[in-house]
Amino acid sequence: MKKLSKLTSILMAGAMLLSLAACGGNPTGGESGTSPSPEPSQSAAEPSNSAAPANTPDAAASYTVGICQLVQHEALDAATKGFIDAINEALPGQVTFDEQNASNDIPMCSTIINQFVASNVNLILANATPALQAATAATVDIPILGTSVTEYGVAMGIKDFTGTVGGNVSGTSDLAPLADQAAMVQEWFPDARNVGLIYCSAEPNSQYQVDVVKTELEALGYTATLYSFSDSNDLAAVTESAVAASDVIYVPTDNTVAANTGIIDNICRPAKIPVICGEEGIARGCGVATLSISYYDLGQTTGKMAVKILTGESDVSTMPVEYAPNFTPKYNADICADLGLTPPEGYEAIG
């Protein structure tokens, strides 16, 4: 019996060793044979090559961006193009753009934006103030970036605006140094006395600009008079009134003017009344000079902001509004020639 017990113990010990050897062959801890071993080229201690580095956009992600542009004209078109180009450069093939134009119909901005909200787009670009106002009224969840918006505090009714909107809104501003624009009147026309300021009363940022420029002009000794129009239908009549009483006309960065520069030019140029403009696109159509920004560059800045929001690198609620860094004095060679004007030193011709 003792020999049998000893033999039994040996057999049991051998069986246990075989069992342990079988368990040790599966490093995943599952049933033997149910989980494959790691590939020979990838050590368990090494990270997978498929892991994306920190702050690198996910190449597999896709996004939809809704673009609401108030009206088609040179400045806004350039801003939209810069925006799209910047996003496509950073996220090639990953973004679908739903680009809509309201044709200067402000209620249409709301219709367009509401469609974006219903489609649950990932981000909204509001190109011009009425588009921004429509977007902020429609959603507090979808990130909104404005561009070609002159003053966000005025556009959104924010008292004592400090530079960051908060919530789901940020963007870029096309605000030019208004005091310098007023000084252009003195630089070009030191002997003038009466300046008429033409603007659309439906655009709050236009009102802001002419109020500031009027104060600056009066400080320089000019008599400055505001001439407002409600839409393009009364622009010609208002322009004729301003021309009859003015030596020089000033028009701010105004979308309705930008879309109808021919009306102003057809009245001002034959009357030999020069126009100083808030931006290059308007000056190209009816002005002698401007101190302007590149709207394409402004759009690119907005696009880079959008990339950071889409990829999660930045939170729109903490992003301050960004401003154009450079302003260039330019003149319209054709109109200056017609009016017999020689541009001051330092101005470049509008291309």
TrEMBL record:
This is ABC transporter substrate-binding protein. Residues 1-21 form the signal peptide. InterPro entries: ABC_transpt-TYRBP-like (IPR007487), Peripla_BP_I (IPR028082). The keyword GTP-binding does not apply. The keyword Signal applies. The lineage of its organism: Bacteria, Bacillati, Bacillota, Clostridia, Eubacteriales. It comes from Lawsonibacter faecis. Keywords: Signal. Residues 33-57 have a biased composition (Low complexity). Residues 26-57 are annotated as: Disordered.
